[in-house]
Tryptophan--tRNA ligase (Phyllobacterium phragmitis), 351 residues
Amino acid sequence: KPLVFSGVQPTGNLHLGNYLGAIKRWVDLQDSHDCIYCVVDMHALTVNPDPVDLMVSTREVTAAFLAAGIDPKKHIVFNQSRVRQHAELAWVFNCIARMGWLNRMTQFKDKAGKDRENASAGLFVYPSLMAADILVYRATHVPVGEDQKQHLELTRDVAQKFNNDYSDRIASLGIGVEMAVGDETVSGFFPLAEPLIGGPATRIMSLRDGTKKMSKSDPSDLSRINLVDDTDTIAKKIRKAKTDPEALPSDVEGLANRPEADNLVGIFAALSGTDKAAVIRDFGGRQFSDFKPALADLAVARLSPITGEMRRISADKAYVDAVLKDGGERAGVIAETTMRHVRDIIGFLQD
Ligand code: TYM
């Protein structure tokens, strides 16, 4: 089975974008893939979180994975910092990635803001750690939202440069694998992992501004639906969501240049497991005053069982910690196998 890796940062509340863009899709991959799902606490450290908040958030995100339906026995769920090989490989990749590559990352530019001098060095080299997360398991498929696309391109660049720089060593050690690069078949140690970005919810937008991504850091809580929101709050946020005054269009093309309408239709499609065309077939020509209550009912029906389950699981700290420990041990075995090869390839002495 192909190997999937993905992660979520334990910072702030998980929201509908995290759920529809990532976690819900992770659940669907479990039958056809071997999956490793990670709470990336080392990534969260780049923004200097309060230690207690970080612990609470790490357990909460784990609870969300489990509540959404990820099976930690068949697959692996763990927090990143338990498996030291992520940090070890990230250092190797810091020496592979070029400053110019990292300089082009839009997420760094957004998160660092105007005061670049004051951003942590960790925030700048964050994509090297992300490449290490994926490649320390030699994962081939990475389900994420659209905003992570550029980081995954960098992951492929890092893998390719490592494979090239060390091609002779990899060949003489006899540990390369054949892989397709464009029309060619080449041999390398790290796979060129493919992003899995698809469906109607690759980029859920703010409920207050259809041109801005729904995000944990938006100061307005009305801009997002949090996984911990209660039924009334979800309904209220959808009722207050910004829209234009027109009715819904009669075909999907009519959603172009109507970002708020497009976003709400996309959310409806993702929650109901259909596509935007199907939603427009049902609601085309109807007013938002009809559509919003239907969307609110659907969101509540889909999210409240998860929210309830998340609360129940979060309360059982011992269970959550046991899942992370067991996942960390299993992940560590795979990661160490990769690192033994990497140390041989790059010339580090080991026993
Ligand atoms: P993070 O924690 O910001 O987000 C977790 C996942 O949620 C997706 N997402 C969205 N999808 C649709 N619409 C939105 N508005 C939205 N907001 C967030 C993200 O695309 C992501 O899939 N760097 C990553 C975490 C990471 C990772 C990895 C991911 C670290 N190492 C290795 C994959 C593989 C991040 O900050 O995600």
